[in-house]
From TrEMBL:
The keyword Kinase applies. This is ATP-binding protein. Residues 12-133 form the Histidine kinase/HSP90-like ATPase domain. InterPro entries: Anti-sigma-factor_SerPK, HATPase_C_sf, HATPase_dom. It comes from Streptomyces asoensis. It holds the Pfam family HATPase_c_2. Keywords: ATP-binding, Kinase, Nucleotide-binding, Serine/threonine-protein kinase, Transferase. GO terms for molecular function: ATP binding; protein serine/threonine kinase activity. It comes from the Bacteria.
Length: 160
């Protein structure tokens, strides 16, 4: 695989775009060799879903779009970034707060830590922010297909 791969999509700040962001990420991860049925693929899709939801719900109409960026460096690190144009950084809620929403960053932090990654938020030059999650890239080794022909062991006749 290449030393550096990038993919990006900009979507309207609309609830329907959360699903579009997930679909985009799933497709890119698949192209880059990460099977959809792995824990890492599930984690990345959920992280993007939560970040996209935050970009739609918590920018109060001040960010007409958000951008999802994926960067794979040397088959070692996957960086997922979601950028919006609202200047307010995500806030950590106290654990005791009982609300129906506001748990997105808690989920993202937990998934990031569980995958051995790290989370940071950076301001953009335009006055918005990018929430970045960096994860170790872990594509499972492919297993031989059952019934595939294997080279015969030394001294063994082919076909046995």
């Amino acid at each position: 695989m290449a030393d550096h791969l990038e993919a990006s999509v900009t979507l309207r700040s609309d609830p329907a775009s959360v699903s579009a962001a997930r679909v985009f990420v799933a497709g890119v991860l698949g192209e880059w060799g990460l099977p959809a049925d792995t824990e890492m693929a599930d984690a990345v899709r959920l992280i993007v879903s939560e970040l996209a939801t935050n970009a739609v719900q918590h920018t109060f109409g001040q960010s007409p779009t958000f951008t999802v960026d994926l960067v794979l460096d040397r088959d070692e690190h996957l960086r997922v970034g979601v950028t919006d144009s609202h200047p307010r950084f995500p806030k950590r809620l106290p654990a005791a707060v009982q609300q129906d929403n506001g748990r997105g960053m808690v989920i993202i932090r937990w998934l990031t830590a569980e995958c051995g990654g790290r989370l940071r938020v950076r301001p953009t030059r335009e006055g918005g922010k990018t929430v970045i999650v960096q994860l170790p890239w872990a594509v499972p080794a492919t297993e031989p297909v059952a019934g595939a022909l294997a080279a015969p062991a030394e001294g063994e006749a082919p076909g046995r």
